[in-house]
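Hi X.,

You mentioned you wanted examples for the new student's onboarding notes, showing what a folding record looks like when two proteins sit in one file. Here is a clean example. The first protein comes first, with its sequence line followed by its structure tokens.
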Amino acid sequence: MEIIKAEILGYCFGVRHAVERAEQALVENTESPVYSLGPLIHNKTTLNRLTKSGMKTAENISEIPEGSAVIIRAHGVPPQVISELEEKKCRIIDATCPRVKASQKIAEKNRDNLIVFTGDAEHGEVKGIAGYGGKNFHLIQNLQDAENLADESDDLRFQKGVLFSQTTFSENEFDKIKKVLGGCFSNLEVLNTICPATKERQDSLLELCSKVDGIVVVGGKQSANTIRLFQTARENCAKAVHIENASELPEEFFELDKIGITAGASTPDEIINEVCEVLNVRSSR
């Protein structure tokens, strides 16, 4: 069996930044609990390791004791969450991805203008940015939403505004939405805030698909960018599987001659290496 890794895979800068901030916080706060407000990143293995080192995960602010150290996860949070933590006298450790932070600032700067934002309504990054956008924030999840907004846009058509996106949104989908809305809104500034890491991983995967019999996509089942990698792999390769760790490898993949490996932006190197090692060992028997 030949195993070929995608040229670009695994941790992106924003995820690495968040993990390093969490590790530093655990070292510096040995006398008090350290909480992550929501999952720090979308990778169970990394979260389990940080939990063993003492990090606790809270889904709600009410679960966090007054005066605790609190890590703001890579996806960021709405400004009202920061205010609530400050009221509880928490020490805030901001691990928001710098690119997400930049999008928050765009929303805040344009809160008196029309804001059109493309992304997934249930994603933490989107909820955080929406909090900075205020009442003029319009969320577009897909092309149909864009067409609906265009049909109902008479009162918005000439407003000054901005169109931008979740960092892990599909660039292809964003381009389609941009074309629809660009023809309806005369004062809509378009900003491409999709992280290059997303496109780089997609392009690297596409190049890999034509060289292998199957693709293994390694990453969290809740990770937006990993899910999109898997969708691309399914569309462009005969066999594709999305796993979180080596124990989930399907038996049929041990019979393939050439396997491609890619991984989402929140997947650590040790998990990728473990998958490759298991494939090598099992296929050589």
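Then the second protein repeats the pattern, sequence line and then tokens:
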Amino acid sequence: MAPFTGGGYTHDVYRKGVGPGVVLIPEIPGIHPGVLGLGNHLVDNGFTVAIPSLFGEPGKPSTTGYIAATVARACVAKEFAAFATNKQRPVSLFLRALARDLNASTPGKGVGVIGECFTGGFALAAAVDDSVLAPVLSQPSVPFPLGRTRRSDTGLSESELSTIADRAANEGLCAIGLRFSEDWMSPRDRFTVLKERLGDAFEVIEIDSRPGNQHGFGKAAHSVLTLEVREVDGHPAYEARKRVVEFLTQRLT
């Protein structure tokens, strides 16, 4: 672990592995065991993983009370602008600087960035920087989807989204978005807008969580790459995680 400063912010960053770089942005409430498990899975698949500690206590298990307390603090932080629409979030400047730094010290053509839940959209915002070649948006939930406008807001400013659309059209940038079909925190409208703007460069993985679904996902199913994964071939969340690894490998090596 070492502190890293970028964009006017300083956060501790945990780094492990060899190979192409991947910035893994933790979901709320922080670097919980599920996030660490995902990070170790990426390391085992040949990546150097850098996890910035943006909130919470690293290693602390996720509980309802812990999540609620972390959300309350994150909501008022200017760094995240949890409710703002058409907004460049200051944390994106930190993440772009971290991506550039990781890219400079790892092999490969560029780096991947994975965002989850509260940080899902931050992964795409990081791709304004040329060092980012493989953004992954897992159940992006900011801005919190209160009202029609926020449900369809991508979590980026128009300037950022235009830059990314230009990269997709002219540089071959690609992104993946993942969500559960009934997840109100990560609305389908958000992915619809991204698909309209990015076209085939935006791959959508939507897992069925309707009542009575084949794999027994509950109506509150949310964390595609961490809490909902069962390491059994054919399990949709496990297959989604496999696809993310494949995507990162294709784009970065």
